[in-house]
Amino acid sequence: MENMLLLTVILLPLLLTACVIILSRRPRARNAITLIVSILVTLLVFFICDRFGGSAAERISLFQLLPGIDLAFRIDSAGLLLAAVSSFLWPITNIYSIGYLEESGSAGSTRYFACFSLSIFATLGVAFAANLVTLYIFYELLSLATFPLVGHRKHIDSQKACRVYTGYLLGSSLLLLLPAIVLTYIFAGSVDFSPGGILKGTASGPVLVLLLLMFMFGVAKGALMPLHVWLPSAMVAPTPVSALLHAVAVVKVGVFSQFRILSSIFGFTLLKSISLAGFSGQQILIVLTVITMVAADILALSQNVIKRILAYSTIGQLAYITLAFSVAAPYSVAAGLMHIAFHAFGKITLFLCAGAIFIACGAKQVNEIRGIAWKMPVTMSCFAVGALSIVGLPPASGFISKWYLLLGAFSHGFHFVFYAVIISTVLKAFYLLRILVIACSREHTDCVERACEQGRIVLCVAPVAITAILVVVTFFFSEMFFELAKLAVSQIQGL
Fold first, then answer.
1. Which of 253, 337, 407, 416 is the one with CA 20 to 30 A from 110?
2. 359 against 353, higher pLDDT
3. DSSP 337-397
């Protein structure tokens, strides 16, 4: 029963993709079945969370791909956390997408919903992958499934964004990630995930550090600089696609894959012991992530397009998550896993707000939304809640994961991480507060005159309210995410 339940959860989005294509001429039926299946997948994932609690890994091997390598899945707490976040936000994004596509008059709705469902299928495959090859297959499938979504509008900017998107994501995975997986198999004779890692004693320290860098930059969905360019470029896509990229699937798959590699391929003990030019693998990663985190926030200050500001914010937040893993303290690793969820809730709120504003009045830039808070009070109140979470202030859930990261950093003597996080926090507060101050101005631009929160735009505003409430609720009731993160940490060796 357990095996069938897991396979059902993974395969339902794939079956939905076929149904969406079949119902292409019946949009109401297509939208209804999309919403029903997404809710069903969410309920099944939460049932698995309740039934198994992530305390024990259940492995399912479907068939052999190569000698010693099979297509395999397993249930564990870290995978359940990613699956729970992605599946829960899926129906919310579907409701928003229906309203957004109707209001914006976008063609190609069937292609949109089919690719979105296929993206969730790929995300769940990554979440429950039992080895590197299975993870890689679904990682690449996610890149291919989201490619048509980035180019959904089919204008020149979309085509350029598609080239950048595929160039960075597929180029990095084929040139760095795939060779790193092959080298891992040559060194260790296995690609299975193991709590203590599988590479200890297989090669010299410098070689393993170089392999580590191949992995971390090969997973370009994690957006470590300089392989971050694809993320701001992809902001030409419709807002629900941006939500998919930043909250529901793509970048979360990136940092989750990095977590699997660090914890189950290298192991944190090995990460701390291998070195190159006098610096340990851990120190190198911490420096890379701190640079990315602070630099992304500095770049966000110079942006005027709202979605590009949020894109650079995401780059910084992804580095924040990878930094938490790199500190390799029990509290910090738990913080990184929790922030996968808490960043998703906060960032999807901000993106959906930006989309609702665009639908209401066509505004894309900060200087175009002057005074809009008086026309769209619900939307901008939700934006303020999402901003609190991204900055990491109470009563938003982003504060919880930040607190645990700082505890972990201090407990392991990484005091400069504290200062880097504080600098990042101040920068985030500045560029997000700027948006809110302009929105609350008593003066208003011409396009703001026609803004409202009535009619069909309610389908865009209601999901925003749900995610904003979720940001606050998970601040006060974060036990589920903390327990899953704590279970994942308890299964990791070397912390």
1. 253
2. 353
3. HHHHHHHHHHHHHHHHHHHHHHHHH---BGGG-TTGGGT-HHHHHHHHHHHHHHHT-TTST
Burial of 105 (0-12, 13-18, 19+ CB in 10 A): exposed
pLDDT given at position 398: 94
pTM over 0.85: yes
Q: What is the pLDDT of residue 185?
A: 94
Which tens digits make up the pLDDT trace of 403-456? 999 999 888 888 899 999 999 999 999 999 999 999 888 877 767 666 665 555
Q: What is the number of alpha carbons within 13 Å of residue 196 lying toward its C-beta?
A: 5
Reported residue count of the chain is 495
Locate all alpha helices (DSSP H) within 250-329, ordered by sequence.
Answer: 250-260, 268-273, 281-301, 306-327
Please answer whether residues 252 and 338 qualify as being in contact, where contact means their C-beta atoms are separated by less than 8 angstroms: no
Q: Is 129 helix (H, G, I), strand (E, B) or coil?
A: strand
Phi, psi dihedrals of residue 63, rounded to the nearest 5°? -165, 165
Nearest-angstrom CA–CA distance, 469 and 349: 10
CA dihedral (346, 351, 355, 361) in degrees, to 10, reads 80
As a whole number of angstroms, the distance between CA 182 and CA 190 comes to: 10
Q: What is the pLDDT of residues 468-484, one digit of tens each?
A: 999 999 999 988 888 88
Overall average pLDDT of the 383-397 stretch: 95
Omega within 30 of 0 (cis) for the link into 240 = no
* CA distance linking residue 263 with residue 357, whole number of Å: 41
Q: Which helix (H) or strand (E) holds 58?
A: strand 58-66
Q: Is 356 within 8 Å of 461 (Cβ atoms)? A: yes
Q: Is 308 helix (H, G, I), strand (E, B) or coil?
A: helix
Cβ contact 444:371 at 8 Å: yes
